[in-house]
From TrEMBL, chain A:
Keywords linked to the UniProt accession: Iron, Iron-sulfur, Metal-binding, S-adenosyl-L-methionine
Descriptive protein name: SPASM domain-containing protein
Cofactor dependence: [4Fe-4S] cluster
NCBIfam families recorded: rSAM_more_4Fe4S
UniProtKB/TrEMBL annotation, chain B:
Organism: Candidatus Heimdallarchaeum endolithica
Protein name (Swiss-Prot/TrEMBL): Uncharacterized protein
C-alpha cells in the first residue's frame, strides 16, 4: 500500500527503455518495461500508480517505491520539501535600452514592433542616473549580491558603441562607492558592420557573443568574414535563434562550431500570426529533430561526444536541460524577470524583461528621480508552486514554469503554453534516456563532462532501479 | 575484506578487522565514514546521493543575451 498520494511521477519509454522521474528530489531511474503499468498517461500520482498496478505482477514496483520513500529518494511534496521564498526585494540585473535602432531587420526580432514606433533615445546622463539609483537602492537595502548591468538588448550595440563605452567608464568610476560588486557585460550583437572601436574593445574584453539569422545568406557571410577582425584568444559565442522548421540541428552545431568556440541554439518565441508560428504539426516536426539530434549524439565515440558537447554554448536551450538533469538543481522560476532583473526602455519605462517592452500590461513604472522602488515589486514571473498547472507537473523544477513573453506571443490567456510544455517534457524524457545510455556505454563520461563544462554531476547513483533498490535493501 | 556493494560512485563493505561498515566514494577515492551497522552506512550513502548543498536556486538569465 502506498501511503502518500500527492506525488506525481513521470513515466515514459523511448527506444525500448522505460524510466521514472520524481519531481521533488529530481531522481530518475530506468525500470524494466514490463514493471510498470502506465495507464497511457504521461504521469501518475502514487494513488493512480497503485490503482493501475494493483495486479499481482506489479507488486514488486510498489514495494520498490515504498523503499524509495522510506529512504527519502521520493518525498512528499506537500510536506517535506524546500519551497520558494522571494528574496529581499532589490535588483541584481539591470538592462538599459537607450534605443531601438538596428541595422538589420531580422524577422524574429523581439523589438520589431517597438522599432516601428517613434524612436526616442534615452540620454546618456539619464542612463547614469538610473544606474546610480538602482545601485543606491541596493546599498540602502544592504544587499550583498552583485549588480550586473547591460545595455542595448532592443538595438544593436555596435550602432551606439560610444554610448556603451561611456557607461562602462561610468560603472568603473562608481564601483568604489559600493560594497557589493558591480559589473557590466557586453550584449550580443549582430556583428554585421562593427566599427573599429567596437572591434578593439572586444579584443580587449576577450568575449564576443553574436546572434545570427542563420538562414540569411548575406548576413551569414558577412558575419563570418567579420570574425577575421577578432583576435584568436577572444572567446566567440554564437546564438542561433531557431524556429520549428529549422534545418537539421546537428549540422547547425557542426557547421558553426568551425567559426565559433561555442554555439547556442535558442528556441524562438514567435507571434501566433507569423507564418513560422508554432502549431501542433510544426511542433511534432521540431520534436523529431531533437530526437534525431539525440540519436546522432549516441552514435558518437566517447571522445567525439565530449568534443561535440564542449562546443555547445551556455545559453543553449537543450544543453541547459541536460545540465539541470545532471546537477539535479531545483529551479523555482523560469527566469529572474521582474524578480531580480528589470529593464528600462528608451522612454524610461521599466519592464520585467526587454522582450515585454511596449506591452502596457507589464509596465512596472516610469523612471524618475522620485520613483518609489516598491512600485516595481511585481509577480509577473511566478514560482512554479504558485501556478496551478505547474504545481502538480512532474518536471516543474527543471522547467521553472512558462515564459511570459512566449505566452503573450502565442496570445495565450491561460497559465501555461502547451507548445512550450511539450518541448520541455520531450527534452526531459530524451535527455534522461541520453544520460542513461551514455552512462551505460561510457561510465566515466559525465565525470569528464563535469570537469569540462563545470557542471556538477549528481548522477552519482545507480540508474538501474533494481540495482538501486537492491543496494539499499538490508 | 567482505565483498563490496556498489551504487553508482559509492561502495560499502564490512571491515572484517573490527566488524564496522565502511562507506567509500570511488570517484573522490575517499572514505566517507565507518558505521557500526549496515543501515547507518546505507543512510550515509543516501545522504550523500541526496546532497542538497549545491541546490541553490539558479534560474535562466542570459548574461550576453539580447532580444534581437
Ligand atoms: S510550464 Fe508546463 S512543463 Fe513547465 S512546469 Fe508548468 S506545466 Fe510543467
Amino acid at each position: 500500500m502506498l501511503e502518500q498520494q500527492y506525488i506525481n511521477i513521470l513515466i515514459f519509454s523511448y527506444n525500448g527503455k522505460s524510466y521514472i522521474y520524481t519531481p521533488e528530489t529530481r531522481f530518475f531511474w530506468k525500470i524494466s518495461d514490463s514493471e510498470l503499468c502506465t495507464n497511457k498517461k504521461r504521469f501518475l500520482s502514487l494513488k493512480e500508480l497503485e490503482e493501475c498496478c494493483s495486479e499481482k505482477k506489479y507488486q514488486g514496483i510498489i514495494e520498490q517505491i515504498n523503499m524509495l520513500k522510506k529512504r527519502k529518494f521520493i518525498i512528499d511534496e506537500k510536506g517535506e520539501s524546500k519551497k520558494f521564498e522571494k528574496k529581499n526585494f532589490s535588483f541584481d540585473y539591470l538592462v538599459i535600452n537607450p534605443s531601438n535602432e538596428c541595422n538589420l531587420d531580422c524577422w524574429f526580432c523581439y523589438a520589431k514592433n517597438e522599432r516601428k514606433k517613434e524612436n526616442n533615445k534615452l540620454e546618456i546622463e539619464k542612463s547614469k542616473e538610473i544606474i546610480r539609483y538602482f545601485a543606491d537602492f541596493k546599498k540602502k537595502r544592504k544587499s550583498e549580491t552583485a549588480l550586473g548591468i547591460s545595455l542595448f538588448y532592443t538595438s544593436d550595440v555596435t550602432l551606439n558603441f560610444e554610448y556603451f563605452r561611456e557607461i562602462v567608464l561610468f560603472i568603473e568610476q562608481i564601483k568604489k562607492d559600493y560594497s557589493f560588486p558591480i559589473y557590466y557585460f557586453l550584449p550580443s550583437t549582430n556583428f554585421f558592420s562593427p566599427k573599429q572601436g567596437f572591434v578593439d574593445f572586444v579584443n580587449e574584453y576577450k568575449f564576443l557573443t553574436v546572434t545570427l539569422d542563420s538562414e540569411n545568406e548575406e548576413v551569414r557571410k558577412k558575419v563570418i568574414d567579420n570574425l577575421s577582425k577578432i583576435r584568436k584568444e577572444v572567446v566567440k559565442h554564437l546564438i542561433i535563434p531557431i524556429h520549428p522548421m529549422i534545418e537539421n540541428l546537428v549540422s547547425l552545431y557542426s557547421y558553426y562550431s568551425k567559426f565559433f568556440d561555442y554555439v547556442s541554439l535558442r528556441i524562438l518565441r514567435i507571434e501566433s500570426t507569423h507564418p513560422q508560428a508554432w502549431d501542433k504539426r510544426k511542433l511534432s516536426t521540431f520534436l523529431k529533430k531533437i530526437e534525431n539530434l539525440i540519436d546522432y549524439l549516441l552514435t558518437l565515440k566517447e571522445k567525439e561526444l565530449l568534443e561535440f558537447l564542449k562546443k555547445i554554448g551556455p545559453t543553449d536551450y537543450i544543453l541547459r536541460y541536460l545540465n539541470r538533469l545532471l546537477s539535479r538543481e531545483k529551479l523555482f522560476t523560469r527566469c529572474p524577470a521582474g524578480l531580480t532583473a528589470v529593464c528600462v526602455s528608451p522612454n524610461s519605462e521599466i519592464y520585467p524583461c526587454s522582450s515585454l517592452i511596449g506591452n502596457e500590461k507589464y509596465k512596472l513604472g516610469v523612471w524618475s528621480k522620485k520613483l518609489n522602488m516598491q512600485e516595481l515589486d511585481n509577480d509577473v514571473v511566478k514560482s512554479v508552486e504558485k501556478i496551478k498547472e505547474c504545481s502538480s507537473c512532474p518536471i516543474r523544477y527543471i522547467c521553472g514554469g512558462p515564459c511570459v513573453d512566449w505566452k503573450e506571443k502565442q496570445s495565450i490567456t491561460g497559465n501555461v503554453n502547451k507548445i512550450e510544455c511539450e518541448i520541455n517534457f520531450r527534452l526531459v524524457e530524451l535527455l534522461i534516456y541520453f544520460i542513461d545510455t551514455v552512462n551505460e556505454r561510457f561510465p566515466l563520461f559525465f565525470n569528464k563532462y563535469e570537469k569540462e563544462k563545470k557542471v556538477k554531476n549528481k548522477i552519482n547513483y545507480s540508474l538501474d532501479l533494481n540495482q538501486f533498490v537492491d543496494f539499499f535493501s538490508m | 575484506m567482505a565483498e563490496r556493494e556498489k551504487c553508482g560512485d559509492f561502495e560499502i563493505y564490512k571491515d572484517e578487522s573490527d566488524g564496522w561498515w565502511v562507506v567509500y566514494d570511488t570517484k573522490k577515492k575517499k572514505r566517507l565514514g565507518k558505521f557500526i551497522d549496515k543501515n547507518s552506512a546505507l543512510d550515509k550513502v543516501a545522504f550523500f546521493i541526496q546532497d542538497e548543498k549545491s541546490d541553490e536556486e539558479e534560474s535562466e538569465y542570459e548574461e550576453t543575451g539580447s532580444v534581437c
